[in-house]
Design a protein that fits this description.
There is one protein chain. The protein has 217 residues and is an alpha+beta fold. Helix content is 33%, strand content 24%. It is built from 6 helices and 11 strands. The chain has a 7-stranded antiparallel β-sheet with strand order 8-2-3-6-7-10-9. Strands 1-11 form a two-stranded antiparallel ribbon. Strands 4-5 form a two-stranded antiparallel sheet. Helix 4 runs antiparallel to helix 5.
């Protein structure tokens, strides 16, 4: 490949990445459900982030919602962990989830494949206790019972029934086949934002990055 063409391709890719980042930050700053006010009492949930990926921490039993029909003890390497009263749940690309148990395992090919897009998606569910502390990566939110049920309905609609459960990274987590197309536009973080928007919670219009989700709380 001629050097000049390689330079133009590199420049084009750089501009594309800069444009994507700028568009994501702008989209994340545009509020939806502007009138939302956190109630004084209701169902306590948490939005969590590892800096790149976001998801929810939810009570297993609240407001008539019971997650035990989805998150079964039999799906865990060690069913003992099913005794915890909360689950952490997030959505994402199947290959990215399974090929990257730690960030040290991330490879450029995995990132590119995820950005291009795939219909093979998973829900990652962990059985955990309620967070003991609140920090920059874990935000506590109170929802009304109706808002929580709408959030739960959105998450449940992401489950693909009848698929094979995959054991997780540890003894307390598992992966479940999911619905939805993953790509650079509809990322794991935009799924989190979609769930919040569906529930009537204030969130950004488009939330492709972790910061565009967590910045609202």
């Amino acid at each position: 490949m001629p050097l000049r063409l390689l330079r133009w391709l590199s420049l084009g890719l750089g501009l594309l990445l800069v444009g994507y980042g700028a568009a994501g930050m702008v989209g994340g700053a545009i509020p939806t459900n502007r009138g939302w006010v956190e109630p004084r009492e209701g169902v306590v949930i948490y939005v969590e982030s590892n800096g790149v990926h976001t998801g929810f921490i939810l009570p297993k039993l609240a407001a008539g919602v019971d997650w035990r029909d989805i998150a079964s003890p039999a799906d865990l390497a060690n069913p003992h962990y099913a005794g915890f009263d909360h689950i952490a749940i997030g959505w994402g690309d199947r290959r990215f989830f399974l090929d990257t148990p730690t960030w040290w395992d991330v490879r450029p090919a995995t990132l590119i494949a995820a950005a291009i897009g795939s219909d093979a998606t998973l829900l990652h569910v962990e059985h955990i206790p309620a967070p003991a502390t609140i920090d920059r990566d874990t935000r506590r939110i109170v929802l009304t019972r109706d808002q929580y049920r709408r959030l739960a309905a959105f998450i449940r609609a992401s489950v693909a029934p009848g698929g094979r459960v995959v054991h997780g990274y540890f003894d307390y987590d598992a992966f479940y086949p999911a619905r939805g197309h993953y790509d650079a536009v509809h990322s794991c973080n935009d799924w989190t934002g979609d769930a919040l928007r569906h529930a009537g919670i204030r969130a950004g219009l488009w939330t492709p990055f972790a910061i565009t989700v967590m910045g609202w709380f």
